[in-house]
Amino acid sequence: MEKTIYNESNGLWYELQGDYYIPCLTVPAEEEKPIGIWGQRHLRHIKQERKALYTELLTSGRLNTYLADINEQAAEQMLLLTEQMAEREGVTEQLKAQDQMQWVQRMNNIRDRATEIVNHDLIYI
Fold first, then answer.
1. Can you give the pTM of this predicted structure?
2. Which of 21, 56, 66, 89 is the Cys-Cys partner for 14 at CB 3.0 to 4.6 Å?
């Protein structure tokens, strides 16, 4: 028996593994982009909760690009929400100069709320 064969009807190569021919399949190469913390969180979520989406993205070669886009959107939304909440609640550089601990407490609260919003809107969907 030949080690590899080519099937002209479907255009696939097959490799002999024991008594069976197994198709030689590869995942298409994709551009490597950093996925960041938000992308990693979303990756963990889709691996556990949305396995069909994860498999489709992985086999199509679009997983890394998809996660990099999610990371970019989440980072932008986080920055925008933090700035808007701080402005609305009067957390300014003047407060930072007058009472640093109060400023830190309020900014941490704002950051935590913005993180929850981003998680709900983009990461755990």
1. 0.76
2. 21
Q: 85, 101 in Cβ contact below 8 A?
A: no
Length of the chain: 125
24 and 36 within one domain: no
**Mean predicted confidence (pLDDT) in 11-19:** 90
Same domain, residue pair 13 and 39: no
CA separation for the pair 53, 73 (Å, rounded): 19
User: What does each C-alpha distance from 75 to 32, 55, 59, 93 come to in angstroms?
Assistant: 19, 25, 26, 22
Q: Which two three-digit tokens encode residue 57?
A: 């993205």
Contact by Cβ (8 Å): 39, 73: no
CB count in 10 Å sphere of residue 111:
15
Q: Find the DSSP H helices in 17-92.
A: 36-49, 51-60, 63-88
Q: Indicate whether 38 and 91 sit together in one domain.
A: yes
pLDDT tens column, 79-99: 999 999 999 999 999 999 999
